[in-house]
Amino acid sequence: MLIRRVLGNYLLPYRWPFIWALMFMAVNAATTGAMARLMEPVMDGVFTMRDRSMVWPVAIAVLVAFTVRGFSDYFHSVLMNRIGQHLVADLQKQLYGHLLEADLAFFHATSAGQLMSRVMNDVGVMRGTAAECLTSIGKSTLTLLFLVGVMFYNDWRLATGAFIAFPLAGWFVASMGKRMRRVSFNTQVELGNFSAQLNQTFQCIRHVKAYGMEERERTRVGAIIDRLFALTCNSFHVQSLTSPVTEVLSGFAIVAVIVYGGLRVIDGHSTVGALMSFIAAFLLAYEPMKRLSKVNAQLQSGLAAAERVFELLDNPATIVNRPQAQALVIPTVDSAKGARYDVHFHDVHFAYADDTPALRGITLEVPHGQTVALVGPSGAGKSTALNLIPRFYDVLQGSVSVGGRDIRDVTLASLRSRIALVSQEVALFDQSIRENIGYSLPGATEEQIVAAARAAAAHDFIVTLPQGYDTMVGEHGVKLSGGQRQRIAIARAMLRDAPILLLDEATSSLDTESERAVQGALRTLQRGRTTLVIAHRLSTVVDADRIYVLDQGRVIESGSHGDLLQHNGLYSRLYGLQSSGTEFNAAFAIA
Q1: Tell me, what's the pLDDT at 466?
Q2: Topology adopted by domain 360-406+503-510+533-586
Q3: Is CATH 1.20.1560.10 the right assignment for the domain spanning 2-313?
């Protein structure tokens, strides 16, 4: 089933090179059979009868056979390897593209190390399998067919007896193949665990050292390595077992050939040349048979890897465009005011995979051009509500609309192109500062990038770096401070110039001076844009047009800063605690 899927879906575009490769394989196999067949005139005509007229024709025929065999082997090997590499490269591209379209919930449920193992280790195994198996299976099978034909042509009785070894060897190889596939599958799983553990350790190395957990991590990784060692040894054991079994069966077969064939020659029922031609064919057939037994083990490893790869490909994304989805186009009522990108939550319910409610029927509005803040204690549902707007998740009940249109009725690309996001988890690529800022607007000019950096209060520190805007930030921006990383992210959002702005603790990593500068830039950026803000420090949202207070997935208060203070509810209490300098982080952390 897996083989049919791989060949049917990925081999079809390369069918003509594949046909040419098969033709060269057939030529190679035919010349191998011809070499065995030429043993009869060599032995009978040249050595036994000592016929001078046979020497040059037979010698030339042997030379031609070797020459044709050599070139055909080259051409079919090159073609088959290219096809195999194309096949796996196409699969790898499809897998990576599929993962890019996967839901955010999928990435939260699957470790990055496991995904990297699927894309690199599993596909890497498939790459080696495809290159080797496509070449060896076709060539070895055709060679066997031609050599068996030569054997039956020389002596069908002798061939029938000798041929018993082939199905016995095939049965044993098939039984070992099933075991090999199980071992290979478990090995790939452990490799995924290994990658995941390494990824987690290296990302958290600062904490590993701070808490003195080196020995614990060494023990955990050591246990995985030990399991990989045991599985690898088991794999070698299974693969190596086919060789002695094949040798023994072949030994019995060749003994039968020598005894029976020798007696027929002695009795005058056959010639020495015919017997030598038969033995040559049998010995030549031994190599492709042995190669097929080894290829089967490799094939099972590739199929085990393919099973894991297709498991990912068969996991469909749920956040997708509806069949009738259209681009988000907001009708312009007043040409002077332009399109109205207001955001509405209407009786929205949402729960994560564990069915724990995160939002319990919230209704709120973010009017066009205004700034609305969501505040509340940890777990209140603030970040969940924000993540629903770009459809990182879909509501369970109710609706979220932009410009009066349900966001599930518009295409994801058109929706997200209207949104700029700055979150507390700054995501920087291991590229230059210029490339990180320009990521939100492909093709942005140098002037636009510098202007965005200036607006985000980032330009001054960028120009002091050794390479300025060409400075590499390192993995996750490790070469920059937390405040610098945050300002780069803000500059990226400013460059996008989207009508909807989502700020999830956008200034949480900034010191007081930097925050003051960035807040001024953010106020400029927010002007005329529909802005939803999640803030830890309430002092940063006192100027919001409206503030919604969330608690346990419900909106319990709303109004302006002054209104909420007069209401003397949860907001007033939290604001008082923060203003008085009381430790506030635990009660008012990010959801």
Answers
A1: 87
A2: Rossmann fold (3.40.50)
A3: yes
